[in-house]
Amino acid sequence: GAVVSQHPSWVICKSGTSVKIECRSLDFQATTMFWYRQFPKQSLMLMATSNEGSKATYEQGVEKDKFLINHASLTLSTLTVTSAHPEDSSFYICSARAGPGGELFFGEGSRLTVL
Amino acid sequence: SQELEQSPQSLIVQEGKNLTINCTSSKTLYGLYWYKQKYGEGLIFLMMLQKGGEEKSHEKITAKLDEKKQQSSLHITASQPSHAGIYLCGADPLYQGNLIFGKGTKLSVKP
């Protein structure tokens, strides 16, 4: 079946640095990908919708200048957490749909820890 | 905005027992997804329901969407330790793939 891969699986960085997380659809093209954030023992919260070739659509309360999303190709979306702070530490998951109305596949997630 | 409420929040069952998890929506559901997640890992797609009264099964897991399309249930028959994890229901209110999720139900299965 379709697979969505994220990289890195986990990353530790110093406060103030930027971190990039990649989300790839391995065997299908995805014009739209979604980025979620999950705090410990809580559910997933949608952060933004990543659109290939255009600007991402951010959910209310999500800082677009802090969470930069780039969807440069039909198989790759990246989330860059800029000037990371400890409160940005979280589990970030992406998802992609293989065609309209189809199944939504999620990546394995990326755990970010900011020291 | 649409909200999903799952019940129970957590569940501990003896291996071999049946169990049911419920997901209730504040609005009509147009696309209801069930996922399983192990803490700190990605989501595993289980089933998607769209039509009122629809029922789907995969191995020992059955999911139903009620006729009014505001409630879904996930039923596991003869639970096994491998069923342990967090079960999340997700709705696709705009039918665009940007899901909203319930808070999840944590299932533990005692051998």
Describe the protein in words.
- The complex is a heterodimer of chains A (115) and B (111).
- Chain A is mainly beta and 115 residues long.
- In chain A, 0% of the residues lie in helices and 53% in strands.
- In chain A, the strands form 2 sheets. In chain A, strands 2, 4, 5, 6, 9, 10 and 11 form a 7-stranded mixed beta sheet that branches. A 4-stranded antiparallel beta sheet of chain A has the order 1-3-8-7, with no helix packed on it.
- Chain A is globular and about 40 Å long.
- Chain B is 0% helix and 53% strand.
- Chain B has strands at residues 4-7, 10-14, 19-25, 32-37, 43-49, 55-58, 61-65, 71-76, 85-91, 100-101, 105-110.
- In chain B, the strands form 2 sheets. In chain B, strands 2, 4, 5, 9, 10 and 11 form a 6-stranded mixed beta sheet that branches. Chain B has a 5-stranded antiparallel beta sheet with strand order 1-3-8-7-6, with no helix packed on it.
- The chains are: A mainly beta (115), B mainly beta (111).
- At the A-B interface, β5, β9 and β10 of A face β5 and β10 of B.
List keywords for this structure.
heterodimer, A: 115 residues, mainly beta, seven-stranded mixed beta sheet, four-stranded antiparallel beta sheet, 11 strands, 0% helix, B: 111 residues, six-stranded mixed beta sheet, five-stranded antiparallel beta sheet
Write the layout of secondary structure elements.
The complex is a heterodimer of chains A (115) and B (111).
Chain A (H helix, E strand, L loop, with lengths): L3 E4 L2 E4 L5 E7 L6 E7 L5 E8 L5 E2 L8 E7 L2 E6 L8 E8 L6 E3 L3 E5 L1
Parallel strand pairs in A: 2-11
Antiparallel strand pairs in A: 1-3, 3-8, 4-5, 4-9, 5-6, 7-8, 9-10, 9-11
Chain B lengths: L3 E4 L2 E5 L4 E7 L6 E6 L5 E7 L5 E4 L2 E5 L5 E6 L8 E7 L8 E2 L3 E6 L1
Parallel strand pairs in B: 2-11
Antiparallel strand pairs in B: 1-3, 3-8, 4-5, 4-9, 6-7, 7-8, 9-10, 9-11
